[in-house]
Amino acid sequence: MDPTVISMLAFLGVSGLVGIAAFVLRDSGNNRNVERLDQLVGRGGPAAASSSQSDMLLKQALDSVNTKSLLQRLIPKSFDVGLYFEQADVKMEPSKLFGVALCLAGAGFFLIGGVVNFYVAPVGALVFGVMPLIWVWFKRASRLKKFANQMPDAMELMARALRAGHSLNSGMHVVAEELPPPISKEFARVYDEQNMGISVEEALDNMSRRIPNLDVRFFVTSVAIQRQTGGDLGEILDRIGYIIRERIKIMGLIKGLTAEGRLSGIVLIALPIGLFLMLLQMKPDYVEQLWKDPMGVQMSIGAIILMLIGAYSIKKIVDIKV
Fold it and tell me: Is residue 96 exposed (0-12), middle (13-18) or buried (19+ Cβ within 10 Å)?
């Protein structure tokens, strides 16, 4: 390809990346000015830190009555984008992140098309475009996993607080004060919701909706039953914490035993892709038959489908539920 064309495409790609950075960081200056004004009027001290959770609850209540954006109208109602981003603890709005993904897809299209080949430019656009979404997915999975690992400590801490004479509300406040995020943030939100007049059952049910975890459902159900029938809640929480801790140990053992299978799956999926890219660079005429010849297109589609089926099968084999 002509070096001039490659230079133009590279320029467009870099310009797209610069535009993404400007799009993401465009509000940072205004936020700093607002923080300075808050400090000048006395709203940046400890009182602001203690009321930040309440401010977040009020903001979400106001956002829930606002008009839905175009992105929210396009996505099916069964998938709550805002809740997904909240579970990942992503401060960026979904529409802004999807805009970044579109800009990255355009930059990837021109970069891969200029450097490699325009036939594989859509693949580059797809790879670059899904990067922000994969980042949100990994961030959500990491946060939920960390929350699950903190559950035994939270249950035991609440049980000790109850035995010391504290109420359930005070016990959750102790968890919010003593443990690190993300569990402290969630229990602090439950505590603030109760202070705003929401019942304990409803506040805990909201937390179980935000945290799709079976152990959280056990905890919420146990509290609801105990408040209706009575009983020693401290002992119940101790038992829940013990069960969760033992389950985490078993899951770690299973993860070690299935490491070979998971690594084999990664190699089997990555090997055809790596071989395709290597042949595309070394002998493009040989690989171009996969999308120029009708039989090659059918073979490519069949290979992709079989790879997806294989990846799903390997995942189901090594994904053992405890």
Answer: middle
Residue of 13 and 34 predicted with greater confidence: 13
Contact 86, 210 (CB under 8 A): yes
Question: Nearest 10 degrees: CA dihedral of 267, 271, 277, 283?
Answer: 160
Closest CA to 247 of 122, 152, 123: 152
206 vs 215: CA distance, rounded Å: 15
For 127-146, what is each residue's pLDDT tens digit? 888 898 899 999 999 999 99
At a CB cut-off of 8 Å and minimum separation 6, what does 159 contact? 233, 234, 235, 237, 238, 241
d(CA 17, CA 309): 35
User: What is the crossing angle of helices 233-257 and 121-163, to 10°?
Assistant: 150
Residues recorded for the chain: 322
The letter for the amino acid at 219 is: F
pLDDT of residue 24: 46
pTM score, whole prediction = 0.67
Q: Which of 319, 131, 154, 115 is nearest to 241 (CA)?
A: 154
Does residue 38 have a pLDDT over 70?
no
- Asked whether residue 298 carries a pLDDT value surpassing 80, the answer given is yes
Nearest to 110 by CA among 19, 17, 24: 17
Q: Which residue has the tokens 């870099």?
A: 14
Residue corresponding to tokens 């799903």: 312
Query: What rounded mean pLDDT belongs to the chain?
Result: 77
Q: How far apart are CA 306 and CA 279, in angstroms?
A: 20
Residue 134 tokens, joined:
């994969």
Residue 179's SS3 state is coil
**Which residues, at least 6 apart from 317, have a Cβ–Cβ distance to it below 8 Å?**
261
How far apart CA 229 and CA 212 sit, in angstroms, is: 26
Question: Mind listing the pLDDT tens digit for each residue in 203-231?
Answer: 999 898 889 888 899 899 988 888 888 78
